Amino acid sequence: MAFTVAVAGASGYAGGELLRLLAAHPEFEIRTVTGHSTAGQPLIASQPHLRSLAHLTLQPTEPDVLDGHDIVFFALPHGASGELTAQLRDVRLAIDCGADHRLTDPADWAAFYGGEHHEAWSYGVPELLVAGGGAGAPRKQRDALVGATRIAAPGCNASTVALSLAPGIAAGVIEPEDLVSVLAVGPSGAGKAAKTHLLGAELMGSANPYAVGGSHRHIPEIRQALRGAGASTEPSISFTPVLVPMSRGILATSTARIATRADGSRPDAAEIRAAWERAYADEPFVHLLPEGQVPRTADTLGANTCLIGLAVDEAAGRVVVIGALDNLAKGTAGAAIQSANIALGLPETLGLSTNGVAP
């Protein structure tokens, strides 16, 4: 019997991507979609590409509308879902695609978001390494999602960087301090609300840095993930996103110092690469590319994949990791559905594809 599903915030970009993927899921039945200013309108007026869901009408985003479903996905602006999730009484699984339930430290929330801090939920990045697994059988965040009833889907930039760097930190082959990540990102990650700096006339033919100087809200989430992966000291990262004229996608170029052992030696290139090979060898959606290859965002569009390229810059004493994913798919909606599959005991890959759309 199919699980009944409601999607709150169904008229936005993340909500639309959730619905696109859910529509092809054999075990999920989309029963309810909600919006704010769009309530009362046909879903297809906001999401004209979702032809199979033309029969749905957007309802108000209220607790009594959402209660009673097996699964509720929240695709709401940051700060909007926490109050709603607290009022759910009859929902088997709730998944928040916003930031409200990601951060464990109230001080981080106060510093980067402000307002009320809500309880942290199980973090929805199944492939993320967590400390305590040992070198032979690395432990993953997947274990914490089995049977979960409340899941926080990741920030798309945060998961790209965390998946890029966690294997090296967990294996002790890179230092957790002096991490540097520069990201080329598509503007769909900023949501569907009209904003002048996201207009086509502002973006086309230009690259636009934003949240420069350590102010981006995904920084504490990255630090939290890398801390959990077993960082020997508190992670520090310089994080700079750059808006580029592609509607969706993230290309994160992250560099880290090669670790120096107590005896003064350093791991060689083969040992460094082995850390990432060991971490992702059996993962269906996170793929380390062959040596010498680097990913393109184009190869991830519409797919639930994170592609990773790895190089060692011996002269600089740094490891260079390039991660690419679709911010709306693997970065948000795909991660949410993948995590839901695990929580409900379904095959993890159900309803999700590694095949992108090209050209």
Features:
20% strand; globular; 7-stranded mixed beta sheet; alpha/beta; single chain; 25% helix; 359 residues
Write a structural description.
Helix 7 packs across helix 10. Strand 2, helix 2 and strand 3 form a beta-alpha-beta unit. The longest helix has 16 residues. The chain is built from eleven helices and 14 strands. Helices cover 25% and strands 20% of the residues. With 359 residues, the chain is α/β, with parallel strands linked by helices. The strands form two sheets. Strands 3-2-1-4-5-7-6 form a seven-stranded parallel sheet, covered by helices on one side. A seven-stranded mixed sheet has the order 9-10-8-11-14-13-12.
Short note summarizing the structure:
This protein is of the alpha/beta class and 359 residues long. Helix content is 25%, strand content 20%.
